[in-house]
Amino acid sequence: GDSKTAIKKLVADDMIFSDKMDAYTYLGINRLNPGLALFYLNEGDKVNALDITNKAKVLLDDYFNSKKATTEILRGKNYVTYGYSKLGYLYGKAGDLVKAKEVFEKAIAIADGSYDGGNTDYVLGQEDDRVIQTEALLEIATNQGEVGLLDESKQTIEKLQKIIQQTNNNKDKISNLSSINYNIMEDGILSKKHLDYFYETVENNIKLIYPNITKESISISEKNKITILINSSRYIFVTTKNKTESYKYLKEASKMVTNIKEPAVKNEKLSSLIGIYVDVLDDIDKGIEISNTFSKSADRMSGIKTVAVYASNYDKFRDSDLAIVDTDNDGKPDFFSYGVTEQQIANSELILDDDSDGDGILDSEDLTPFFYKK
Question: pTM of the prediction?
């Protein structure tokens, strides 16, 4: 609760640069171990998060200008992956996309070798295998996508593909291109207009990995398209709260699932659909409906159990510990969690809902404030 004391401890003279940077931000690239800035973001306090991120940038700028990172490995780690790319993520999550773009651009210039006219005191990409360079660009592209800078993320991926082609080590080339495929498959997308682009990116990467592959056999399998559609639906709803658009993706994915012949694969995709419907969209009825489409009774029971597990983890404000319940899905909490202080509420962007079920009747006058059947 005492950020000034925490900051004094962070800037202790005997701490090495990387430890200070982690303490300001988060441990390496592991956001499960938050430093001060990410801690504030998790608390919904973007003002203090921005303040701490600015302090981290001053620290990184001083380190960068001192040219203390003498090897490519250290430059890739301290300047980009654990440095400016990480700051871009924090600035984006704190709502300052202008600064996010600024530090991402610097990170890219270091990673692609263009910073300061290619000054080898700063840039990456001097080694033949370019592994450090590609890892740095992949981290930048991922962070750009996570804060909603999709066009910039797309450009970084295109730049990354070109650089990977210059890699002499074919094993590393395959590994890095596969990493792009994996990130796209796992993370999905944020906007429907990018769906075809991501399909195309995966197919192009397959072609680069296997240059002799035939055009007929390069198309993405239906099960991978289903994965992209499901994850896209998740990200669209989480970032825009557009349930209608989210359902469009799931409807298309559901059609594809019905055509899958292998029972194990079909069950896996049905379970994924249950997860997105119940855990993200709070549509328990749809989850149960999908559970009843399993062919075997044991699988149907397993599906119902999955619905129950997701339903028990209900939390409409996963990025904040201040509230959980939002009956009408309007982004306003019905009430705040026990122990939350007025100062925490004031520092957050959350506003208490005075009509929890969205029926047009104020809670203070509503006999059933949390129930409205249209």
Answer: 0.56
